[in-house]
Specification:
By secondary structure, the protein is of the alpha+beta class. The protein is built from 5 helices and 6 strands, in the order ββββααααββα. Helix content is about 45%, strand content about 15%.
């Protein structure tokens, strides 16, 4: 649902200065958004990634190794993986280096290019 943007008044009338679009999220996604990363489970992360991909980019073809990719991501990063995923979808709007974020971005082969830079960006790398 679009939110009316702030406007400035000029001699010619109101001038649009910004716009914002909000999209609805599922109840579970809303709850996860307010849940500390330390309380997330692998299943929560999988749900979050899948829902955000579909919400931001529309329906996708199934990723044959999705469960294995996300399990490996969770094993490598644990709760820090929540910060990575949230940065990818919330700060970067599901886009990374000009391409949509898909499940495959969370595979180990993408860590140097995707996961580690986002981890540093969030300040959770320590």
């Amino acid at each position: 649902m679009p939110v009316p943007p702030p406007a400035t008044e000029t001699a010619a009338g109101a001038v649009l200065t910004e716009s914002l679009t909000a999209t609805a999220v599922s109840q579970r996604l809303a709850v996860l958004g307010n849940t500390p990363a330390s309380e997330w489970r692998e299943e929560d992360l999988s749900y979050y990634i899948t829902e955000e991909i579909e919400r931001l980019h529309g329906p996708q073809l199934p990723c044959p190794h999705q469960a294995k990719i996300i399990a490996g991501f969770w094993e490598r990063f644990g709760e820090k993986g929540v910060a990575i995923a949230r940065a990818a979808f919330e700060a970067h709007r599901g886009m990374w280096m000009g391409a949509p974020v898909t499940v495959k971005r969370f595979a180990e082969g993408h860590d140097e290019f995707f996961s580690f830079p986002l981890l540093r960006e969030t300040g959770a790398a320590g």
